[in-house]
């Protein structure tokens, strides 16, 4: 009876852990975007004041670069969760062994 409760609790913890990981990735993306945008705008303002006679082009350009960098980092963060799409060929014996292991695990549960 207690083993059933612990397996149910562990399954719930695994589900919560994956949802928490996804939430952490989104939080990291948003904060990264905000930080990069602020830094990019700040660098653009400084460059505009010092070198470009208070024109807005350096501000837009550096902010765009910063947003692009944050977007790329966010894509890289989420890419680890996606499949690569690479086809892996396995032998028939290995497939049968895997299926047998899965059946044993289902019987034990």
UniProtKB/TrEMBL annotation:
Top-level division of the source organism's lineage: Eukaryota
Membrane topology term: Single-pass membrane protein
Alphabetical keyword list: Membrane, Mitochondrion, Mitochondrion inner membrane, Transmembrane, Transmembrane helix
Subcellular location per the Swiss-Prot or TrEMBL entry: Mitochondrion inner membrane
Cellular component annotations (GO), alphabetically ordered: MICOS complex
Keyword Ion transport part of the UniProt annotation: no
Keyword Metal-binding part of the UniProt annotation: no
TM region(s), chain numbering: 33-52
Function text: Component of the MICOS complex, a large protein complex of the mitochondrial inner membrane that plays crucial roles in the maintenance of crista junctions, inner membrane architecture, and formation of contact sites to the outer membrane.
Family: Belongs to the MICOS complex subunit Mic10 family.
This protein's name: MICOS complex subunit MIC10
Taxonomic source organism: Capsaspora owczarzaki (strain ATCC 30864)
